[in-house]
Amino acid sequence: MPAARSSGSKSDTAELLVPVSTWRxxxxxxxxxxxxxxxxxxxxxxQIIDTDYLQSQGDARYLRVQKELPTRGxxxxxxxxxxxxxxxxxxxxxxxxxxxxxxQDYSYxxxxxxxxxxxxxxxxxxxxxxxxxxxxxxxxxxxxVAKQILxxxxxxxxxxxxxxxxxxxxxxxxxxxxxxxxxxEGQEGLELAFExxxxxxxxxxxxxxxxxxxxxxxVEQLAAVEHGEDVALSLDSRIQYLAYRYLQAAVKKHxxxxxSLVALDAKTGEILAMVSAPDFNPNDRAxxxxxxxxxxxxxxxxxxxxxxxxxxxxxxxxxxVIHPDTAIDTEPGHYYIGRSRINDTKxxxxxxxxxxxxxxxNIGSAKIAMMMEPRDLYDTYRELGFGETNKLRLPGEQxxxxxxxxxxxxxxxxxxxxxxxxxxxxxQLARSYQALANDGVMLPVSLHPVTKPPKGKRIFSTDTxxxxxxxxxxxxxxxxxxxxxxxxxxRVAGKTGTAHRVVDGQYQDDSYTSLFAGFAPVSDPEIVxxxxxxxxxxxxxxxxxVAAPVFSKVMEGALRFRxxxxxxxxxxxxxxxxxxxxxxxxxxQSTSNVGSGA
Length: 598
Prior knowledge:
Blueprint: H1 2-16, H2 22-49, H3 52-62, E1 63-68, E2 75-76, E3 82-94, H4 96-100, H5 105-115, H6 119-128, E4 135-141, H7 143-151, E5 157-166, H8 174-177, E6 179-180, E7 186-188, H9 189-193, H10 195-199, E8 203-209, E9 215-223, E10 231-232, H11 237-254, E11 258-265, E12 271-277, H12 290-293, H13 296-299, H14 309-319, E13 327-329, E14 334-337, E15 340-343, E16 350-352, H15 353-359, H16 362-369, H17 374-383, E17 401-402, H18 410-416, E18 422-423, H19 426-437, E19 441-442, E20 457-458, H20 462-475, E21 493-503, E22 506-520, E23 527-534, H21 543-546, H22 548-561, E24 581-582
Helix pairs in contact: 11-22, 14-16, 14-20, 15-20, 16-18
């Protein structure tokens, strides 16, 4: 029985075994062979027939377009002295993915020391930008430091050549030149105004990079680099430096808030110097604050005060209503137009038109102006360029204020003649005096060298200009308001101005703008100059005490630099003492703050 059971058990087991047929093995083999064949066909297709896909994928990972930065053009003065240049510097950049895969503590410690960063700071920046292939670590390093960093051979750390703008004169020319940002793009001044000319055009080259960003091969040049153009200015660095030096000294001496100076070539209209205070150093980005970078020669406006009197007199001379010897009664030192009072600094009595300029009489100027129509005075001021910009492309230039009225009140008519009721900037005032220095013909101002004098516009006749210039020469004489503007061995003509400042629409009783405008030498004018000092403190606030000495010092050096021969020994035209008393009257009852002082 046991044997029978054993035999039956083997039979049952054999019946349960299912043999694997040959067709199944064949099916599995065919599937694997088909897949392998498909892979071979796909590889052949991609590698031989359709190569564009793999090429594009490879290019997307390793082929890059690299820029070659252009050198920014230089800015030079009229003697070709460099005023703004671009110097090569190196910037350090990293490949974040490579940085995060490294644990070289020693190398990163030395790297951080050279960059002024800790290892944690480097790693934090890499983690924040880990999906990017190019991240700046430090820009504009000295080549020596960059070389030390590369010598560490830290994986993922590379350099790129860039350019940094440098200004050899520092603050002396800062307000005119302006500055660039870290990407070498103009932000202020001439750097911004001439950005298109200076910046150039970057070159483009297709390169092959490895996985950590190193250039393996230069494939092709797509566009050649075009370096920026140089820009030549009419500025004379020597005169600019003198102007900067003495203007800064005046601001410090008189505790003034701001100041500006403009010097022009009397025969061409070229700008020889343009200075503002306070200053800043464009090489130090920590000093770039809006209050300091303002070019006050064109951006700040003020009422020009008595510097306008020569134009009212010139207009009346041209019209034939007065002569240099016509007498004006200024007694007793004040004059009422309705309820408004016009003051002189003292009672000058009965004086000639010539002495109105020499003594800077507000009363005399007002009476002369009121012999003519107010519209005539307005039109003359407009022809002199007041109320409009000089179109220099310099950012921030203000056109000032010259109101056009249908009906002028007598007090407005009077005060306009001695510089109240309009506002100008320093450059505008200098340009207007250029008309007096150039035989009555006003020229457009230029920041570029002028080889051929441009066509000007005649404002006053030659005879009138000669008469007014003689008056302005007396104003600089020992009996005038500006003896401190005199220049040894040269004849100087000019006019002081001391105008109450306007703050929040109100005239300030104890705050002034001190001015001097003039030119030299009188016999053959070469240089026109205007000095404006705002809010000088103390008892010496008159233009003849604050602005005139600056004019004298700067003009003396400027004439010497330009080799202008002295003319002080030449005969001066005599003044005619004949007096004809004139007393214009008015019944206007208006009131106005009309100011006082020369």
